[in-house]
């Protein structure tokens, strides 16, 4: 614990010696160009998809477009994507959160480096009160 405080104080003092930071907060200009091109390409693909989905096969053959997939995929691909998003949002993501959350009897849920036990019965300073003390005050 004391070693952690020593390292953090050394980092702060070295940061003060290095002077002001010279990093820019603005994004690079090429990012705007890439974003605009991505926006244009996505709209072109959306228009192609809508044309393919709503124009009949006969009209596509008139224009010489005979190599398109079946119209089934115009409905199936968005349905699969929507199902995948729902599966991720309602099953996979909560499951990952449940897996990485420690159980209630684990010390990581009870104590951490920011908690401090209150001394006496006066008005305590603003601290992170341990879970054990909260439960004792609320339920015992």
UniProtKB/TrEMBL annotation:
One of its GO terms (biological process) is GPI anchor biosynthetic process. GO terms for cellular component: endoplasmic reticulum; membrane. Signal peptide: none annotated. It is found in: Membrane. It is a multi-pass membrane protein. Keywords: Membrane, Transmembrane, Transmembrane helix. Residues 31-139 form the PIG-P domain. It comes from the Eukaryota. PANTHER family: PHOSPHATIDYLINOSITOL N-ACETYLGLUCOSAMINYLTRANSFERASE SUBUNIT P (PTHR46346:SF1). This is PIG-P domain-containing protein. It comes from Daphnia pulex. The lineage of its organism: Eukaryota, Metazoa, Ecdysozoa, Arthropoda, Crustacea.
């Amino acid at each position: 614990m004391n070693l952690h405080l020593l390292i953090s104080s050394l980092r702060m003092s070295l940061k003060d010696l290095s002077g002001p930071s010279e990093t820019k907060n603005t994004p690079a200009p090429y990012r705007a160009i890439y974003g605009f091109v991505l926006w244009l390409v996505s709209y072109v693909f959306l228009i192609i998809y809508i044309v393919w989905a709503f124009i009949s096969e006969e009209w596509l053959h008139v224009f010489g477009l005979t190599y398109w997939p079946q119209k089934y995929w115009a409905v199936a691909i968005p349905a699969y994507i929507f199902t995948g998003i729902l599966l991720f949002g309602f099953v996979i993501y909560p499951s990952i959160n449940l897996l990485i959350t420690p159980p209630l009897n684990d010390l990581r849920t009870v104590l951490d480096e920011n908690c401090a036990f209150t001394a006496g019965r006066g008005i305590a300073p603003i601290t992170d009160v341990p879970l054990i003390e909260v439960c004792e005050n609320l339920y015992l």
